[in-house]
Amino acid sequence: MADASQTLGIYRRLVGARLRSDLQYRTSFVLFLAAQSLVGGAEFASIAVIFSQLDALAGWSVAEVAFLYALSGLAFGIGDLFISQVETASDHIKAGTFDRFLIRPLGTLLQLSAMEFAPRRLGRSLQPIVVLAVALTQIGVEWTPAHIALVPVTLASGVAIFGSIWVLTSSLAFWTVETQEIANSFTYGGNTLTSYPIDVFGSVLRRIVIFVVPLAFVSYLPAADLLDKPVPYGLPRGAGWAGPFVAAALVLLARAVWRLAVRHYQSTGS
Amino acid sequence: MKSARLYLEVGRSTFRRVTTYRAATLAGVVTNTVFGFILAYVLLAVFRERGTVGGFDATDAVTFVFVTQGMLMVIGIFGNFEMAERVRTGDVAVDLCRPYDFQAWWLAVHYGKAPFYLLFRGLPPFIVGALVFHLRLPPDVLTAFAFLGSVALAVGVAGAYGFIIQSLAFWLLDIRGPSQVGWIVAQFFSGSYLPLVLFPSWLEPMARALPFASMIQLPVEVFLGKHHGADLLGVYAVQAAWLAALVAIGRVLLARATHRLVIQGG
Amino acid sequence: MSSHPPAIELERVSKTFVVRVRAGRLRREKRVVRAVESVSFTVERGSMVGYIGPNGAGKSTTVKMLIGILTPSAGVVRVAGLDPSRARTEVARHIGVVFGQRTQLWWDLPLRDSFDLLRHIYRVPETRHTANVGRFRELLDLGPFLDTPVRQLSLGQRMRGELAAALLHDPEILFLDEPTIGLDLVSKEAVRAFLHGLNEQRGTTVLLTTHDLVDVERLCDRLLIIDQGQVIEDGSVSEIKTRYGGERTLVVDLVEPGPPLNVTGVDVVRVEGPRQWLRFRRDGLTAAELLAEVTSRVAVRDIAIEETAIEDVVRRIYARGRR
Q: What angle is formed at CA C181 by the lines to CA C175 and CA C183, rounded to 5 degrees?
């Protein structure tokens, strides 16, 4: 395990270097932080607006939907902070600077996520944390040890799911550089989608987010378990706990696809 | 007028430039369509409970979503850094020496992109949406043209707003933070998150008093046939007024900025 | 010959690209580009090899395969005994790379910080790192700008920083791509002197890709010339010069201006007053013999001998290759 701890050490130092670089531009950093919080604010405001017209959305109360929003937003925010920067791969390939990562005795994913670390993205997580804290007190849940554990487990799986989606969509850049934006529909779209109970979506879309792109495990299924809500498609009770396994499978898939993508780059030279 | 020709040419060459962004346009259409679906479903759930809100029914709402998604790039509501970048690098000094109106130039660039985006980002999401949802087309040809007129004004309002934001670069150099803040506020109050008719009764009038409603909410309401006759003229008046006001503010800022540049030896 | 494996081995290595070229409005044709064709060579440890060729010859493609950035379409590549396409990260520990035009340093941070980060990336023990930094600081005169952010350095300073950075982990093999490009003369000489010392004292194998043939002349004991994907010359610099650049020029300053000297096997290529340029072949006549012949006929005040410039040699080789 000495290897893993050394890698972690290297990661910490590379990230530290980015922090030092970015903090040189302090005002810009703070403004960006504020801007990111505002984005979350606007999305949450949309939920508030909806609930100014209704008491319940597909049977979910405002606190319950806020809970979904916060789970999704926080998982997305953490993923955005630590992993989303792999999408800069397409910029590097276009500029011809990706080769630099192939010279070093480190994995390319690690280097990208460390060297392009953007501390200002922390802003995206700030507001969901607050909403989560409030929502947890408002939703009617019996806080057994299992239920308490489900929250961090769900968050961790959510981060892994969003992270894997980022890596998968960024791998596309090694084949066609111009389609980076499509990735946004999966990541940012996924974030918006998982802020709402999937009951509102049509049956096709519902099936897709459970069985194909498993976004349902980011917020809906675990929340449904916690809140004792009916679950679609006869999925068993406790499907929310499958989050970590689904996430792990997705992580493995993402790593494999990335490796394939880099090998493709190495054989075609971009 | 010679200068009108110049700006026309600027618009034309910008149009030509954006037509080459083929892959990016496709990717953008996918994103718009996906978001369109998500928002449409959410609104359908809302309207299932409420029936009608603020004169909108479910079909209006879903149509609103898809027309809005198509319009986002047309008016440029995600912001732009082309001008700010030139300010940051100092290249703007050259631009300011040239014998044309700096603001008119950038507005021409902005208008140059609009037709392309209207066609290639505006239509496709609507068409895909229409395959799944029941969407409402403008009730008659006149309304369709009225819509285009409103869009033309909306593009100007957003362009002038963007000019103001990018002018901040003369003072701040790195405007990413303020730009994001400025455009998120615009997006929210323009109706691109949710149609303003859904806003609580204390917020909606305030939202409509802002220039952002002229960017999305008003034109799309025209599309839905919500404004006729004198009412329609009223909409145009509001949009035109905001266009004039934002252009004026932009010019004041620009004058201040150039004055400052001259003093500091740029 | 040491018992160690060679530093670099290529055996019938090829690299083919399939390029999609737009032919007309919509169609795309597939064109096969053979960037490198069945190239084989071996570089023993401790040598300093110049790898040159015209643009598009396949130089950078070869080097990229050696580093592990590209994978070969055919053939075997071995660097430090390992296959870069299979063991990229391991090979990375044994090599140092300097790209003349692209930086590998952290742009916004002081040079010293880049060194520190690299120490951790390559897992260099602290004592060795401090020693190395001290050594390079002295040899490359880094002291004045070690604490300056890289983005504020001049090209010459940055190049010296890049060299040090590439060598901090004591790699056995150093790949240099245009290391002296854009540098002023003083910096160029400093870099050359440094590389020479490196090779001599530490036995670092160096593969140098360059268009600056003075680099080659000063540093390389061996020259590999590639053109259109194939190695067309492989030998020591003096061998190649002899083979292609058999000519030398004896410049004589006569006491009094006179008619062009007529000696068998000698061409008078230029006459300016009392000065005559006499070109002769190395294998036909030695300089001493020609000088003796000339002084026997006329009074000579001063002489000089011009060797064939490596540039002429290389130009001649390229011209040959393209026939």
A: 120
